[in-house]
Amino acid sequence: MVRNDERLFRIVSRAVSDNGLDLRSAVFREQKEFGISWKRSGKNIDISVSDYLADAPYDVLEDFSGTVAGTIAGKRPGYGKTYLDWVKSDDFICSSRKIYLKRSRNLTGRPDGRGRDITESLDRLLDSGLLRPENIDNSFFSWTRRPGFKKVGFCSPMMRVVGVSSALDDAAVPEYVLDYVVYHESLHLAQGYRPGERAHDRTFRLNERKYPLYEEAEKYLRTLASRPE
After folding, report:
1. Could you tell me if 112 and 79 lie in one domain?
2. Given a cut of 70, is residue 3 above it in pLDDT?
3. In this structure, are 76 and 163 located in the same domain?
4. Distance in angstroms (rounded) separating the CA atoms of residues 131 and 182
5. β-pair partners for 163
6. SS3 103
7. What kind and span of H or E run contains 38?
8. Which of 13, 37, 140, 181 has CA atoms 20 to 30 A from the CA of 217?
9. Three-state SS for 195?
10. For residue 161, is it within any domain?
11. Stretch 6-27: mean pLDDT, rounded?
């Protein structure tokens, strides 16, 4: 569903104009993952923004629009503090996550599965010191409905949601493999929402290798990935 918004158009239009361009349209679009897209024809710009920002305060949209317009114009501006502080706030995360989960058709919405509980995995990681409580603060963990063998986990740092493949919800899968996948995705939560930055950067890889059975878990997951889905 596309929602036209005069307020969005006015704010983005000013930012686009400041960068020597002309805005033709600016709409909010309903979609599961947060995103921005645009089309450019000469100086004319059409912009589509995820509807997660539909209720954002004026100054947040203004800050956000300045970055987007600058990017379209070929500059490399980072996102501003006003925008980042707002999307990292508990209020935004909690309200947007409810919508995100409704749109996530492949999630059960529960950390307890048929035979495994992701919460128990988190407890083991916390007890071991690999994770700290603040790493997973205000987060949501769920099994997937469909068992993915190649993609065994995902994380939305913005919504602070982790999905774990139900292929691991099996007593035949070693416990350390499930814990490793949960640890990997929790590292993304610890990174937080960082638009424009690499998710698997050097620091992430170094932390990932702190897992005691890293090599064994990776080997098991490579074997699992060879199975037909």
Report:
1. no
2. no
3. no
4. 10
5. 142, 154
6. helix
7. strand 36-41
8. 140
9. coil
10. yes
11. 95
Regarding whether 108 and 210 lie in a shared domain, the answer is yes
Q: What is the pTM of this model?
A: 0.93
Q: What total of structural domains would you count in the chain?
A: 2
What's the mean pLDDT when you consider all of the chain?
95
Q: What is the pLDDT of residue 5?
A: 85
Residue 228 predicted with pLDDT over 90: no
43 and 110 in a common domain: no
CATH number of the domain encompassing residue 107: 3.30.2010.10
**3 state DSSP class of 123:** helix
Task: Please report where in the chains the tokens 């997937």 appear, as a residue.
Answer: 144
**98-115: pLDDT as tens digits:** 999 999 999 999 999 999
- Residue 159 pLDDT greater than 60, yes or no: yes
**Nearest-angstrom CA–CA distance, 154 and 181:** 9
Helix (H, G, I), strand (E, B) or coil at 108: coil
Same-domain pairing of 73 and 179: no
Q: Is residue 59 part of a domain?
A: yes
Kindly give the pairing relationship between strand 44-50 and strand 153-156.
Answer: unpaired
Q: Pick the last residue of a domain from 34, 63, 87.
A: 87
Name residues whose C-beta falls within 8 Å of residue 192's C-beta, 6 or more positions apart in sequence: 88, 157
**% of the chain at pLDDT higher than 70:** 97
Name the residue among 42, 24, 49, 162 with its Cα closest to residue 100.
Answer: 162
> 58 and 20 in one domain?
yes
**75 shares its domain with 149:** no
CA–CA distance, 30 with 1 (Å, rounded to integer): 5
Q: How confident is the model at residue 210 (pLDDT cuts 50, 70, 90)?
A: very high
Rounded to an integer, what distance in angstroms lies between the CA atom of residue 76 and that of residue 136?
A: 31
Please state, in angstroms and as integers, the Cα–Cα distance from residue 195 to each residue in 34, 35, 190, 191, following that order: 11, 10, 14, 11
